[in-house]
Amino acid sequence: MRVGVVVLGDVGRSPRMCYHALSLAENGYQVDLIGYAGSDLPEQVTNNSNISVRYVAKVENLPNLPKVVRYFLKAFLQSLYLLVALPLFSYLDCILVQTPPGVPTLPVLYFYSFFKGTRLLVDFHNYSHTILSMSCGPTHPLVKLTKMLERLFGQQAVASFCVTQAMKEDLLENWEIESTVLHDRPASKFRPITVSEKHELYLRLSKEYPELAGQEPGSTIFTCTQNGDIKLQNQRPGLIVSSTSWTEDEDFSILLSALHNYEMKAKERPLPDLICIITGKGEQKQFYLNKIHDMDFQHVKFITPWLTAEDYPLVLASADLGVSLHTSSSGLDLPMKVVDMFGCGLPVAAISFPAIGELVKDGENGEIFSNSDELSEIIQDWFHNFPSDTNPKHQRYRSELESFRNSDWTQNWNAKALPVFKKLKGIPSGGEFPVFLFFLALLCVFAAYLPTCA
User: Fold this and answer.
1) DSSP secondary structure code for residue 340 in this structure
2) Measured in Å, how far apart are the chain's first and last C-alpha atoms?
3) b/e burial code for range 207-224 (CB count within 10 A of at least 16 → b)
4) pLDDT digits 0-9 by tens, 138-151
5) Between the CA of residue 416 and those of 14, 216, 409, what are the distances in Å?
6) What sign results for the dihedral spanned by CA atoms 450, 452, 453, 454?
7) pLDDT value, residue 346
């Protein structure tokens, strides 16, 4: 069976869809992984003979036209480029598509599936309209139309996945869509590491980021060599790591305010200096880097690298505490970054939102906070007298994470998703939705781009 795995986004920054592709390939399926080029793909994907990567052209360098015309043109080109990237003269047995973005992705793929006899599956990570409402407001016509289209075409799928039990219940109650809960689980590369691995990692990274270098040759700020053995430095700083998209649904100012409060308390209490590694790319990154520079921290150093797919899990596994600022526009999805941190055995402080309790158990495997003051208290408590007298919670939380790690992505996927794909042979392709209504809806997609967001 040949499966198309589609995301209208940077494939290298879509780990769940890459994991889908790998799991399908490992079970003997031929996979076309389709999306935008950008970040490097994991070597497991590029080296897998069962996976072919097809890149969708990006809509760039539009002419200087009126904004209304540009919206229309962009929607049309996105739809066209996606169709061109799909196999036109060969056959896909089924397509698994990520939403968001649901528009124009779902209408276009329904059109393709209807005429090619391909079965369409949807993996709901969140809702497109809730993300759009963050910039346009919930009552904007574009938001309402996006919601209608995502629901309408989502209902045409032969099967659906979602990321939480809360989303499964919401899909069924409000959209009448049956779905299979496929909780995110870490890939095998997300694992605890040894002190030697940590030493090798920061020796390498210190060449580009001198803040990580130690005072002695061959040492790092965290590790050193004593009598031929690699050991942790007795007076090392604490290491916090956070991965952010630097967008509106992750308010980085909360972490910044919490660390500013920590900076003030470090002058009064026995608190260590901190290294805060923030990974990711996004439109607000430079804005916050400027704020960090203006705040002139003395006890906290910030490093904002873009890590390779191989180094990212090593950095997570080497940290003392992870921080998640993901709030979810719908309140129904979960942050993949926390899953990755848990896979590395790293306890996490996560901001509160409705579904987070499905992953972070407050006081058991991590801590939940609602504002910067609460996060600052968590960080101060976590690093009190560090590293000479570590908080007993450190080991207790890490022990709890062992049970989470025992169910990895492969086991979870084989138990939940593989049976869905095996059943597809007995499910007819296409849907009951009349084709002429598709064209009507497609016109609505284009029209949805006409209003501007105030």
Assistant:
1) H
2) 47
3) eeeeebbbeeeebbbbbb
4) 888 888 888 999 99
5) 20, 51, 10
6) negative
7) 95
